[in-house]
C-alpha cells in the first residue's frame, strides 16, 4: 500500500494508492478519466489535473471550503 502525506497551508493531504483522498481529515470525492489521463473533482469544476496530488493541492489552496476555514 502506497501512502503519501504532506501539508499544504494549514491542511494535511493524505492519498492512499490513488484510491482515497483526504484533506484535513475530510474525504474528497474525485474522478479519474483514463482517456485523458486526468483527475478532477466537483470542488474545482471545469478543471483537470495530471495527478491526484496536483488536484489535492489545488483543492486545499483554491477552494472556498478550505480557504474560509483557516480565517
How would you describe what is shown here?
The structure is a single chain. By secondary structure, the chain is an alpha+beta fold. The protein has 2 helices and 6 strands. The chain has helices spanning 52-62, 64-68; strands spanning 3-8, 11-16, 20-23, 26-27, 31-33, 38-40. The strands form 2 sheets. Strands 1-2-3-4 form a 4-stranded antiparallel beta sheet, covered by helices on one side. A two-stranded antiparallel sheet has the order 5-6. The chain is globular.
In short:
With 71 residues, the protein is α+β, with helices and mostly antiparallel strands.
Features:
globular; 6 strands; 71 residues; 2 helices; protein ne1242 fold; two-stranded antiparallel sheet; alpha+beta
What summary fits the major beta sheet?
Answer: 4 strands, antiparallel
Residue fraction in strands: 25-35%
How is the quaternary structure best described? single chain
* Pattern of helices and strands: EEEEEEHH
Name of the top-level CATH class: Alpha Beta
CATH superfamily: protein ne1242 domain like
Number of strands: 6
At CATH level 2, the architecture is 2-Layer Sandwich
- Assign the structural class, choosing from mainly alpha, mainly beta, alpha/beta, alpha+beta, or little secondary structure: alpha+beta
What does the overall shape look like?
A: globular
The termini sit apart by 35 Å
Strand order of the largest sheet: 1-2-3-4
* Number of spatially distinct domains: 1
Amino acid at each position: 500500500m502506497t501512502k503519501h502525506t504532506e501539508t499544504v497551508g494549514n491542511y494535511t493531504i493524505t492519498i492512499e494508492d490513488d484510491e482515497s483522498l483526504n484533506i484535513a481529515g475530510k474525504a474528497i470525492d474525485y474522478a479519474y478519466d483514463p482517456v485523458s489521463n486526468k483527475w478532477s473533482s466537483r470542488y474545482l469544476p471545469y478543471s483537470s489535473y495530471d495527478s491526484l496530488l496536483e488536484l489535492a493541492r489545488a483543492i486545499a489552496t483554491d477552494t472556498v471550503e478550505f480557504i474560509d476555514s483557516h480565517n
